Amino acid sequence: MKKIFLLSIIIGLSFSCGKKISQENNTTKEVKPHLVGGDSDTHGCKGSAGYSWSTLKKECIRIFEGTKLSHTEETGKTYTTAAFVIFDGNKAELFLDTQEESVILERKAEGQPWIKGDLQLVPWKGYVLKKGDKIIYTGE
Model confidence over 41-74: pLDDT tens digits? Predict the structure, then answer.
């Protein structure tokens, strides 16, 4: 009697465990871990680490290490956005918050402004960025 009882318990447990294992195998999906810093752009720059592609330098850079330009105040409004500039010889690469791609400005001689289209980066008390005749950013 004891042998039959013990045998029935062992058989019952093996069926219940077997069903649970097969259910786990059917519902288990492969989950790929999300790696922090695994977000490279087309140039291999990691945006989550603060890197952006520089057309001028031809490498990934942290634009916030360049020269910061802040919005100018108009009619009492304060802006919280900024632009950044990096320099290389007579060229300046401008990273604006309103554009996805950077803008390359060029100057003809030392002391002259860097220009592209209607954008002008003037070296005056730091730097002044103008669009047409309107000052849009200033910085040191």
Answer: 888 889 888 898 999 999 999 988 888 888 765 5
b/e 13-37 (16+ beta carbons within 10 angstroms → b)? eeeeeeeeeeeeeeeeeeeeeeeee
**Whole-angstrom Cα distance, residue 134 to residue 5?**
94
Q: Measured between alpha carbons, how far is 138 from 140 in angstroms, rounded to an integer? A: 7
Tell me which amino acid residue 127 is: Y
What is the percentage of the chain residues whose pLDDT exceeds 70?
A: 71
pLDDT at residue 75, rounded to an integer = 44
Residue length of the chain: 140
Rg (CA), the chain: 31
Tens digit of pLDDT for each residue in 15-47?
A: 665 545 545 555 556 766 655 556 788 888 898
Domain ranges of the chain: 47-139
Q: Strands 59-61 and 67-71, how do they pair? A: unpaired
| Beta pairing, strands 67-71 & 134-139 | antiparallel
